Amino acid sequence: MLPRTLGELRSSPFGQDSYRTRTIKDEMRTNLIRKIEAKVPIFSGIIGYEDTVVPQVVNAILSRHNMILLGLRGQAKSRILRGLTEFLDDAIPVIEGCEINDSPFSPICRRCRDLLQEMGDRTPIEYRGIEDRYVEKLATPDVTIADIIGDIDPIKAAKGGHAIGSELSVHYGLLPRANRGIFAINELPDLAGKIQVGLFNIMQEGDVQIKGYPVRLPLDVVLVFSANPEDYTARGKIVTPLKDRIGSEIKTHYPASLDHGVAITEQEAWMRRSSARKIVVPQFIKLIVEAIAFKARADQRIDKRSGVSQRLPISCLENVLSNAERRALVTGEDVVVPRVADIYAALPAITGKLELEYEGELKGADTIARDLIRQAIQMIFRQYFPTADFKPVIDWFEMGGQLKFSDIDPAGIVLGRLDQIQGLVEKLDVLGAGPGSPPAVRAAAGEMILEGLYSMEKISRSEERGYAATERKGAAQELYRDYNMERNRYKKPLN
User: Fold this and answer.
1) Residue 157 lies in a domain
2) Are residues 331 and 450 both part of a single domain?
3) Total count of domains within the chain
C-alpha cells in the first residue's frame, strides 16, 4: 500500500532520496536509459523515424533539453510529443489537493508550504499518474498570458481574506499546473508575441512571475513545442530570444518509402471493422493508395508549403474499404475486396486534403485527384509488371473488343467478362490472385491490370464505353478499317 502521509513517505522505499532532488528532466533521462539498456522500442507506434527523428529525440532527452519538432502537417509531431510520457514514472507523490503537483519534500506554493509547516509529517499525500502530468495546448491567437502563466484572482482574494498580491490569490494557468510534468504547445508561432516572451523565465531561470506582483514559482517542467517550418523561420512569427532558448530543434518528415507509408496507414486506418463479412484488402490496393500521397507530394500543382498529410492515405483507404463494403451489401457477397474503382469513389477523402497552387486551382481538385490516382496506378503497375508482355490483351481491344462494368457489379459478373479477354487471366498470379483465390480478389486483380494499361495509354476508358482500344489504332484495326473504306467506295448502289 502506498504511503498516505509525509512521515510514511519518508520511511518507505517510495520516498527515497531520488524523489527529493530529482527533476522531471532527470526522471525522463533515467527511464530512457533504462529502456535503451533493456533494448525495447523507444517509441511505440512510430514508424519510419528509427534512424532519423527518434535518435535526435533521444539525444535531446539525454541532454535534458527543451525541444521543438518542426514538420509539415501529418508527420506525427503530436504523437511524438504525447509519446514522451513513456519516459515518466508511473506515479509520483504530491501534497494532497495541490493544484501544481507540489513535491512533499520541497513545496513551492504558499498553500503547501503553510500546510507542511502546520502538519509536518502528518501532511496528507496523494499521487499523480502519467496522464495527469502531460498538459497540451494548441496555440491560437486568442490565448492569453493568464491562460498560460496565470493571474491574480480578486474574487479568490476577497473570499479568502488575502492581500491582492498574495500567492494565495493566484489562479494558476496551464504552465504551473504542468509542474513536475511535460507542457506541450502545438503550432508555437501562432502564440502571441507577449506570451512567447512570458515563456522566457521558465526556460532560462526556471520560474514564472504572475503579472507585476512579487509572486515567483520555480517550476520543474519540460517544455516541448511543434511548428510548421515555414512559420517558424518567418520573421515576426517567432520571437528570436525564445527560439534561442529551445535546446534541440528536430525536423520530422513524411515516410521515406512506400512500405513505411503502408505500415503507417495500416496502423492508423479503421480496417478491422465489426462486420459479418470477411475483409480482404489486396496489397496492390494498399500500395496504390499510398502512392497517391507520394505523387501528390511531388506534384508542382500542389502547395509544397502545406504538404500532403499522412491522413490522406489513411482517410482514402477507409473510404475505399467502405465503398467495397457497400458493394458487398448490395450484391450479397460474403467477402469485401476493394477494387481500383473504389479508389476513384474515394475522391472526397483526397480532394479536401490538397492545397492547390494557381495551376491546380484552374484545373480543379477533382481533376488533379483523378490524375494522381492514374499516376499512382501506373507506378504500382510498373512495379508488378516491369517487363510483362500484354500484347494479346491490347490486340483483343484493338480488334474491336470492349468491356464495361460498374463498381457495384458482383465479382462473378466482372470475372466472367474478364475471362473473355485473351491473355489477361494468366497474368493474375503476379498480383497474388491465382486460380485458388476468391473470385472477388481475382476480379480486383483483373481490373488492376486494365487500369494499369489505361494509365500507360495502351487502352482507353470512358464512362460510356468502358475499356476499349485507344484512339491510336493498332495496325490490324487500321488495315481492317482501310479495307472497308475501299470496299464501300466501289460498291454499286442498289436500284
Assistant:
1) yes
2) yes
3) 2
Are 418 and 260 in contact, with CB atoms under 8 Å apart? no
Angle at CA of residue 180, ends 167 and 150, nearest 5°: 35
Q: Are 117 and 95 in contact (CB under 8 A)?
A: no
Tell me, yes or no, whether 484 lies in a domain.
Answer: no
Q: Is 91 within a domain?
A: yes
Are residue 180 and residue 265 in the same domain, yes or no?
no
Backbone phi and psi for residue 38, each to the nearest 5 degrees, phi listed first? -80, -5
Yes or no: say if 467 and 454 are a contact pair by the CB < 8 Å rule. Answer: yes
**CB distance 227 to 184 below 8 Å:** no
Listed in order, strand segments (DSSP E) in 273-420 are: 278-279, 335-336
Q: Which domain holds residue 49?
A: 6-251
Are the C-beta atoms of 373 and 354 separated by less than 8 Å?
no
Distant-in-sequence, close-in-space partners of 475: CB < 8 Å, separation ≥ 6: none
Q: Is 197 found in the same domain as 345?
A: no
**67 has which bridge partners?**
224, 248
Write a three-state SS string for 381-445. HHHHCCCCCCHHHHHHHHCCCCECCCCCCCHHHHHHHHCCCCCCHHHHHHHCCCCCCCHHHHHHH
Residue 481 within a domain: no
Task: Let me know whether 195 and 210 are in one domain.
Answer: yes
Specify the residue for cell string 486494365: 450
pTM for this model (two decimals): 0.85
Q: Return all residues near 267 (Cβ < 8 A) that are at least 6 apart.
A: 45, 47
* Pair (338, 457) in one structural domain: yes
Q: What is the pLDDT of residues 23-79, one digit of tens each?
A: 999 999 999 999 999 999 899 889 999 999 999 999 999 999 999 999 998 999 999
Q: Are the C-beta atoms of residues 42 and 32 closer than 8 Å to each other?
A: yes
Helix axes 439-455, 391-398, angle to 10 degrees: 80
| Same domain for 269 and 228 | no
- The closest alpha carbon to 101, from 72, 138, 128, belongs to 128
Q: Are residues 333 and 408 in the same domain?
A: yes
Give dist(CA 417, CA 443) in Å, integer: 10
HSE (side-chain half, CA atoms, 13 Å) at 354? 33
Q: Note whether 291 and 214 are same-domain residues.
A: no
With CA atoms as reference, report the closest residue to 9 among 87, 76, 96: 96
pLDDT tens figures, 390-449 = 999 999 999 988 888 888 889 999 999 999 998 899 899 999 988 888 999 999 999 999
